[in-house]
Amino acid sequence: MLVEVAVAAAVRGTFTYRAPPALAPEIALGQRVAVPFGKSRRATGYVVGFPASAPEGVALREVAAVLDRVPPFTPKLVELIRWAEDYYLVPAGELLRAALPPGLNTRKGAAAPVRRGVEYAAPEASAADALPTLARARAQRAVLEYLLARGRIPVEELRAAFPAGRPALGALARRGLVRLEREVPVARGGLLPASAAPLALTPAQAAALEAIAGAFGAFTPFLLHGITGSGKTEVYLQAIARARAAGKGALVLVPEIALTPQLAGRFRARFGDEVALLHSGLSPAERHAEWQRLRSGEARICVGVRSAIFAPVPDLAVVVVDEEHEGSFKQEDGPAYHARDLAVVRAKLEGAVVVLGSATPSLETLENARRGRYRLLELPARIDDRPLPEVELVDLSKLRRPGRDLGPGLVSPRLAEALAETVAAGKQAILFLNRRGYETLVVCEACGEEARCTECAVSLTHHARRGILLCHYCGRTERVGERCPACGGARLGVGVGTEQVEEAVRALLPEARVARLDRDAVGTAEETAELLARFARRELDVLVGTQMVTKGHDFPGVTLVGVVLADTALALPDFRAAERTFQLLAQVAGRAGRGADAGRVIVQTFNPATPAVACASGHDYAAFAAGELERRRRHGYPPFGRLLAARVEGSEAGARRTAEALAEAARPALRGEVAMLGPAPAAIERIRGRTRWHLLFRASSPQALFRVHGALARVAHRPPGGAEVRFDMDPHSML
Fold it and tell me: What is the DSSP string of 406-423?
């Protein structure tokens, strides 16, 4: 038997091996195997096919070992990964390795033993009657007598009493006298409690649910466009309940579970231990155990982040992508893929329904709905017809005039007044600023020297509480000095981060209970959940944070949301900057007024007339989308064109030389159908000591880009400057 294997390495293509007769019956599609690779090493591989004939002129080697009793990948998952290999131009082995939880990825082809919970042994009801038959099997009799005296016990206890008793225990189990059970721990950390009872649906919710459930059994993609607070999650929950009633499974992708403990908590409250969680906030053992619960069919619903698109959910009927517009669904490091788009492909392969939900859909998804590729479902009103919050713009440019003050921490007098009123009324407020730290730039007043990272082409951020300057890209730190190391002049802090805003609010409202939610204040999913739980219990009055505070939280006590600076992303050299700004503003504004009391939003900006800010202040997604789509159409950007990025990293000279060689190789393949931008240094030219160059290719179809990639791949295989080349199909970040 011939076996096609994808090796768990950054190697394009697959390799053919022979299956020795002793192993052939054990080898199945999707299985991990150990294979000889290279001159003297053994590698872990994944079975992705069974060729009918061997490649000519190649002496085939044999599979060395089978590493799993049950293949970790189903045939449909293998098919999905092969599709992703071709489309995203990444090795299948890299995708397969990234798709598995820790503990199933091994080095040198050796299977890593992973303990899954606690194994128990218990005597069967008829065991006592069978004791006389074990007169000659003394070891089995001794073990059985111990079990009859102790009842159901952990096998570890039995091993302590009988160090050599495992064979006897196995023999008793085969005789039907002993029952062996394994309890798998269920991941429970980082969740917020929620009600288990289904909620009454609005007419719009009920119509959406019937459309989704009515499509079960056939591939149907939906865009569920519901404004903030309109009840999208309840539609997901009740659709999945319908799927479970039919004995089917469900997959729910969320941007970051660590930031949305309410959502994960609602799924667990509704479906209990049928829900498996897959995200980086779990320990490796927990992630492995949750994955195994799915693979065995013990859990039939998976809630996870982007890598959960490869989760082995059995009998898949519905796939949900919540907040489908979120950029975190795009994998930037490692094998590049977009989990939202793979969700559509997986649903098609498995004949399932896919629901893409958002209050601010990505323009690509919106255009797919307009072209009829996706069915559009709308939730145009909030639950109980609660009004959207009123939005007030504060023009910061007017506050910089003589005699006026922006206020400490960039908290304007108007925002300070609203905060005081909110806290005095016993209500809660959220303040949003997408900048960590205290000051975003430290500069010398005398010579103008910036405090910059020596490894990255970025400024260091001042974190006052820790007394350090920190690089947010490589993590390098240095102590804060009052004097410039270059000339001895005094240093000045410029720019505002969440740490400074928190300090300003504490100074403005000494009696208020204030907390901060960002990557510096909380480090784990449990810490995030605990802080949000305190806010939900109204033990805090004001929550200051980065985009972590915008992620789908539902706090009825919040009546004020303040956007400290709306312009932080607008100046980025990225054609999606305006779209991301609008989405962030709309999402954070949606946190206000979700209870019985009306909400209000104060947005501080230097650019009140820019469409992203003006449309967000009017809750006018349609107007923003129309204007932005027309701009994209004029320039040929997605969704009206397709992009391929070639990202080069290496030494300063090597990266440039490799990028220029890629450009030279690409030119004959452009044929007037593909536009090439670059080669040019990346917007952030150096990260972690490696110089970065980019080339961007734009075409009307992916096929033209695949042709260009074929020309580039020959250079990337042996780059002349020794740099590393990564290809990114449908890139999401231009930085």
Answer: --GGG--HHHHHHHHHHH
CA angle 50, 51, 55 (to 5 degrees): 140
CA distance 588 to 586: 6
- Neighbouring-strand partners of residue 226: 379
Distance set, CA 47 to CA 41, 73, 81, 102, 361 (Å):
18, 9, 12, 19, 38
Residue 111 to residue 388: CA distance in whole angstroms: 55
pTM of the model: 0.83
Chain centroid to CA 357: 15
- DSSP secondary structure string, 10-55? S--S-EEEEPPTTTGGG--TT-EEEEEETTTEEEEEEEEE--SSPP
Does 161 have pLDDT greater than 90? no
Please report where in the chains the tokens 């499974």 appear, as a residue: 249
Residues 6+ apart with CB under 8 A from 454: 476
Ordered strands of the 477-479 beta sheet: 461-463, 468-470, 477-479
Rg of the chain, C-alpha, whole Å: 29
Is residue 344 within 8 Å of residue 307, measured between CB atoms? no
pLDDT of the residue at 354: 98
pLDDT score of 186 more than 70: no
How far, in Å, CA of 586 to CA of 583, rounded?
5
In whole angstroms, what is the distance from residue 621 CA to residue 624 CA?
A: 5
Single out the residue of 520, 528, 580 nearest to residue 549, CA to CA. 528
Neighbours of 512 (CB within 10 A): 17
Q: Which residues contact 721 (CB under 8 A, 6 or more apart)?
A: 650, 651, 653, 654, 655, 656, 657, 658, 661
pLDDT in tens, 597-606: 888 999 999 9
What is the predicted pLDDT for the residue at 408? Answer: 75
Looking at the chain, the whole-number percentage of residues with pLDDT higher than 70 is 93
Q: Predicted confidence band at 495 (pLDDT cuts at 50, 70, 90)?
A: confident
113, pLDDT greater than 50: no
**Would you place residue 103 in the very low, low, confident or very high pLDDT band (cuts 50, 70, 90)?**
low
- Tally DSSP H helices, then E strands, for the chain: 20, 30
To the nearest whole number, what is the mean pLDDT of the chain?
87
Angle between helical axes of 75-88 and 92-99 (0-180°, round to 10): 130
